[in-house]
Amino acid sequence: MTIKISLVDDHHLILSSIENMLKAAGYFELCGVYNTGEALMEGLKTTNPEIVIIDYHLPDLNGAQLARLITYRYPDIKILALTGFDKPGLSTEMLESGCAGYLLKTSAKEDTLLEAIHAVYEGKLYLDKDLKQKFANNVQKMQRNLEERPRLTKREQEILALIVDEKSSQEIADKLFISKKT
Hints:
The protein is α/β, with parallel strands linked by helices. It has eight helices and six strands.
């Protein structure tokens, strides 16, 4: 099984490291190595990679823009984002733009990158383990915030329901047998 891959990153060291790793693995075919999004898009006209590994920050396009272009023009190509930015919002943006995986340069090792490539190739979603932890922490924090929100009393709920029914303050007071000031 040979997996065809193209790479785009504006850092030569990153490109050469990934290129050497893929060659050493022995079952990847490197279709192209590019420094800009535009160069990649031009290269895709003549190559046929199954996976494109993209960075978020490129000199001409950001990763989300590039992912949307690839997804629109070449819907069969799977995209793996490999970037140094670990903001959950950024990973969400990339995934919504068409990436099937999001991996951090700061935590990725050779076996992690290979695992991500295989997951994306097999049609699975891959998310960096550090980001999974951040997402989990954010979800737990949101859950705590929901649990800590003040709850309305039964009486407050009754009043709110009458307000929704467009009752006046006097009508509400009369219905609930309370003073208008209350």
